Amino acid sequence: MKEIRQIGILTGGGDCPGLNAVIRAISKTAINYGVEVIGFIDGFKGLVENRYMQLDLRTVSGISHTGGTILGTSNRDNPFQFFTISDGAPQHSDESDRAIANMEHLGLDGLVVIGGDGSLNIADRFSEKGVAIVGVPKTIDNDLSATDVTFGFNTAVNTASEALDRLHTTAESHHRVMVLEVMGRYAGWIALHAGISGGADVILIPEIPYNMDAVISKITQRYRQGKNFSIIVVAEGALPEHGEIVIRNLVATSHDPIRLGGIGQKVAEDIGNHLNNIEVRVTVLGHLQRGGSPIPYDRILSTRYGVAAMDAFMAGQFGTMVSLRGDMIAAVPIKEAIKEIRKVQPESEMVRAARAVGINFGDLY
Ligand code: F6P
Question: Is 255's pLDDT higher than 90?
Fold first, then answer.
C-alpha cells in the first residue's frame, strides 16, 4: 500500500456544530500517524482556487467546543459545475481536474471531506476519478443514509427544544397558538425530535403531508379540555396534502439552489383564518440551529468520527464514509450514504410513541 505522508481536509455545505471537533480529531490522529494535514479554505471553492492552511497541533488546539468551522465553508460551490463570472457573464464550468492538479502539486495522498449529501456526492465523483477519499457525515438535517446519526443534529435538536420550552411559557400566559418553524430540508428529523422533547401538540413534517382540518381539530379539542394554548412545530419542508413545499428563495449561483422557508407563516395564517378568536404567532428558528457550540454528545461523536476517518484513511478504505451503527463506528461506501435521503418513517416506533402521548401530525390518524 502507498505510504500516506500528507492529506487535505475540507468542510463543505452548510456549517454545523461539531465541525471544529472533527477537524481537530482528524488532525491530531494524523499527526500521531506522522501524517501532515492541510485544510482547504471555504470548502470545495478553496480546493479549486488552491487556498489552504497548514493544520498543526497549535492550529487545532482548543477548538472542539467552538461552533462554525475554522476552515470556512460554502454550500454553493461544486468543482464539477464551478460558478465564475467571465466578461461580466455568469458561467458554470468543470474545474475538477484543476482541483486534482492542485492536490497533486501539493503532494497530497488524498482528501477527507466533512459534509452532507451535497458534499459527499462531490466527494464520490472525485473518488471515481481516482482521488483517495474518506467522508465524515455532517448535517443538522440528519438526512444521510447509512448512518444512525450525523454530527450536529443533536445540537440543533437541543436548540429547537430549548426554543419550544421558551415558547411554551409565553403561549400559556397569552393563551396563544405558537408555531415554530425549524430547519431540516426534505426530512422531518429536527421537528420530530424537538417536538417530542419540547412537548409539542402538533408536529408537521414532510413525510406526513398535513390536513389543516386535523390541526384545527387538535387545537379546538385542547380548548375543550381547558388547555387554552397550543404549540406547533413545523419542519421547513412540511407541506399540505395536495399542496406544495414552500420555497424561500433560489440561490442562482448554487448547484443546489432551492432554499426552503415560509411554511410556518402559512400554517399560522391558515390557523388564524379558521380560528379568528385565537391569536397565533410564528417564530422561525433559522440559522440559530446551525450556530454556536456543539453539545457534549456532538463533541464526542465528532471526535470519534474524526479519529475513525483517519484510521480508515490509513487502512486504505477509500471511497468510504465513517458511520455510526448502534454504538459502533464503521466505514461504509459513500455511495450507500448518498443513494437516497434518509427520511422519517411514518410508521416508525418514534412516530407511534409521539402519537401515543397525544401529538398530532396533521393527519386524521
Ligand atoms: O442543510 C442544512 C440547512 O441548514 C438546511 O436545514 C436548510 O434548509 C439550509 O441548510 C439553509 O441553507 P442556507 O444557509 O443557504 O440558508
Answer: no
**pLDDT at 1 > cutoff 80:** no
What is the average pLDDT score of the chain? 97
The pTM of this model reads: 0.97
What residue ranges line ligand 1, CB within 6 angstroms? 14, 75, 116, 139-141, 183-185, 236, 259-260, 290
Sign of CA dihedral 348, 350, 354, 356: positive
**Which residues carry out catalysis?**
141
Find the radius of gyration of the CA atoms of the chain.
22
Mutational pocket test of ligand 1: of 183, 254, 288, 289, the residue with most ligand atoms within 8 Å of the beta carbon = 183
| Ligand 1 closest atom vs CA 190 | 6
pLDDT at 185: 97
